[in-house]
Every structure is written in C-alpha cells, then in structure tokens.
Amino acid sequence: MREEGGIFVCERGQMPTSIDLARRLREYVAGETPPKVGTSYTAGGSWFCPACGSQLQEQKSFLKCLGCGRELGRFILYLLIEFHPHSKIGQ
Questions:
Q1: Predicted structure pTM score
Q2: Torsions phi, psi of 75, nearest 5?
Q3: Sheet harboring 71-73: ordered strands across?
Q4: What residues form DSSP beta bridges with 39?
C-alpha cells in the first residue's frame, strides 16, 4: 500500500481506500486495536498486516499478525471486503 492524498492505495489490487478505512488503518498501525466481538466469521484467503506486512493468521473473530502481534478486527475486514473490492490479481 502507498499513501496518496490522505488515503491508501493497494497497488497490487488497484484499490483505493475510503477516508474512513484510511483512518481505521492508521489507528491499527498506531496500536489502537478494535474490541473483539463474540461473533465468529471466516475471512478466507491470504491477508497481510497493514502495519508490518507479515502474514495474518485467522482466529475466531479477528486476524492476528504473526510478525507484530496486532489484531485486525472484523470491522476493518468488513470494510475491506464489502466496500473496497480489489481487481482480480493475476489476470
């Protein structure tokens, strides 16, 4: 990802973020972890930490970074999946 005009752009997926998602990603990088939610979900696929770039490991209601230990909560994942479609990588 690169920062551009107050938002982030995923270069590989050709996807710009919204202002709200950019704010939440900055909070994540600053170490402000969102509260855990009891509802479990499955993110699927390969995910990487916005803070350090390490792979994320899927757990019950969040993704945990194997590098820095931060947790990517379901609210950020929801925003990434539902409102920020990536182009089909590899086509």
A1: 0.62
A2: -70, -40
A3: 56-58, 62-65, 71-73
A4: none
